[in-house]
Task: structure prediction
Amino acid sequence: MKALVIGGSGGIGHEIAKRLSHDVSLLGIHAGSDSQKLAELIAYTEKNTKTATFIQHFSLEEGTKIFFQSFKQSALNVFLEDTDILCICFGPFLQKPVHLMTEKEWLDISFFNYTFPGFLISQALPSMMRKEFGRILVFGGTRTEYIRGFKTNAAYGGAKTALCSLVQSVSSSYASKNIRCNAILPGFVDTEYIDESQRKERIRLGAPLISLDKIADAAVFLLKSEHISGELLRVDGGLSF
Result:
């Protein structure tokens, strides 16, 4: 079995890649740049399975047309078009009120949190349909399972809400082909991207950070499930209530 983790060099994607290396015969790991942490991850996964690495920085600086043309010609796309398991752990976060948002911020947040994940799924689906097997996992945002207002991160929240809708659309459309599509909606996760002040603030509010292990546990559970599909699984310690 073949799996691909988009955004696998750090944070949630890093931990999921480690877990998947024990369960698949070929693991693809995408990273935005080379790093010591990526090298350590590859050293770990190669002990368990064959590993292919794709270092590709995603940027819209040259426009969407050039972006898609370049991506379709990449080795990453070739791997994507034949994968059995797709985990999309990439998506920029931005906390900013609507009246301060720039054109570039609107484009980046909406594109990389909704349009691009949708495109990746579109690229993976034909092969999954032929094989009559596929497992897709994406990551929504806290409280994005329903349409609601977001005061400080409207662009991000809106894009992730749309992504959750896509998850359920894919789930219902391709269920007969044994393709399962789910999302995890995490709270604040204890990754290297969280600084000490943010960590202390979560403790002060009585809402500790969620460990990477717990997120990875949920991811593996959904990927291994034969019958769960269209699930928007909240792993946030009750933050969304």
Remarks:
- Residues 2-235 form a domain with the Rossmann fold fold (CATH 3.40.50.720).
